[in-house]
Structure formats: structure tokens, C-alpha cells
Amino acid sequence: MTQPLFTSPAAPQVPVTGERAGYPVRRIFCVGRNYAAHALEMGNEVDREAPFYFTKSAQTICLGGAEIAYPLGTQDCHHEMEFVVALGASAFRVTTDGAMDAVLGFACGIDLTRRDLQAAAKDKRRPWDLGKDFEQSAVIADITRKEEFGAIGDQAIRLSVDGAVRQDATLSDMIWSVPEVIADLSHYYHLGPGDLIYTGTPAGVGPVVPGNVLLGEIDGLAPLRLGITAPE
Fold first, then answer.
1. Which is the most buried residue in 1, 33, 135, 219, by most CB within 10 A?
2. Dihedral pair phi/psi, residue 141, rounded to 5°
3. CA angle 215, 144, 183 (to 5 degrees)
């Protein structure tokens, strides 16, 4: 077997609340427009025909508590608070009834978005990669086991910037439920341990600037803090 030319980065690991072992991230899937009010604020119609997705590479993971530089190449970086699902077992062509069997736990997450680059791509009918998939753009707090979190219901999901609430909704506001999302994705991918699903963001997304401190919270989960510093 040939030797590699260089050492590849190890899979990023997310802490699991109360445990010593970390959760190695394999892939990141993100659900687009999964809250009706957010779809409307972005000028899009609410669509129940089928969920749609974009992806981020595992190397975009940024653990909660970090201080990160304002992202490169943008003048309009936005926060998007999300409920993150961490899979711990395989899911391939599953039904909604069996989808939750693949879930290990949940976490608070923030999908940072270079909105100006995303908008430019949309205008030209091009992929969103530059707007979504960039370093430290998939922010995540510690994972809580699903047994400790309990059933997904009307838990509050909110995000504050410098103490002012910007996003405030409940998980029950999602258009596509977690089991529906997992079941749908499992017909396009062989889902498995290490796969994270960012399930969409409520209304209230907006810009961040250097000096901001973000606090993301979901009832029953470890909170997520993120500081934004001056650009490099």
C-alpha cells in the first residue's frame, strides 16, 4: 500500500455531555427553509412538497465557546440558530417510524452564512457552496443524549446577540419533523454514525459584526456561546 503524501486532518470531535469520549464528525447535512416564518422573511414560499438540503464539510466544525475571526470574503455574515441531530447508528431507506432509532443525541448549533455570497450565487442560479461551506461555519455545542433530552416537542429555540434576542421560536414550528428529515435523507444517502443534521433556522436571522457575542439556547440542551473578533 502506498504512503500518503501528507497527513490528513483527523475527524473533528464534539464533546458529549457527561462523557469522556467525543463524537467524531463524518458529514454535515443542513435542511433549508424548515421554518415557515424564516422562508417568508427570505422571500420564499413555504413548500411542503419535499425538504431540500445543502452540505458542509466536517472540517467546518467549530466548538461552542470559541472566539473566531469574522469570516473571509464577506461583508454580510449572518447567524442561523439550529437544532442539530447527531446520528449514532445506520439509517438507510428507513421510515419515519424507525428513523429515531438512528439518533444518538441533539445539540445547539449555528449555521454561519456568508449571505452576500449566497445571494450572488442564487441570482446566477449557481450552488451556494461559497456562502455556506467555509471554515468554522458549523458551530456546535456539546451533544446531549436523546434519552436525557426526551421527546422533541415545543422546546424553545432562541439566539441572542450581545444580550438582545434575535431568534425565538419552538421546535414544533419546524415544517419537516426530525423523523421526516431522517427518513427522506436516508433515501439519498447511507446515513450512519458521525452524521450531523442541522435542521433549519427560525425567523430572525441577521448580520454579525466583530465584537458580537452570540448565545444560542434550546430548552434541555447545553447552550452555545460564540464570540466574533476582527477579521484576519
1. 33
2. -90, 180
3. 105
Phi/psi for 111 (5° steps) reads -95, 100
Distance of alpha carbon 172 from the chain centroid: 17
Tell me if 81 sits within 8 A of 216, measured CB to CB: yes
Q: How does pLDDT run across 99-151, given as a tens digit for each residue?
A: 999 999 999 999 999 999 999 999 999 999 999 999 999 999 999 999 999 99
Residue 107 burial class via C-beta count within 10 angstroms: exposed 0-12, middle 13-18, buried 19 and up: buried
- Separation of alpha carbons 21 and 10, rounded Å: 15
Cα torsion at 224, 137, 213, 150 (round to 10°)?
-20
Q: How far is CA 29 from CA 25, 34, 216, in A?
A: 11, 13, 19
Counting Cβ atoms within 10 Å, is residue 28 exposed (0-12), middle (13-18) or buried (19+)? buried
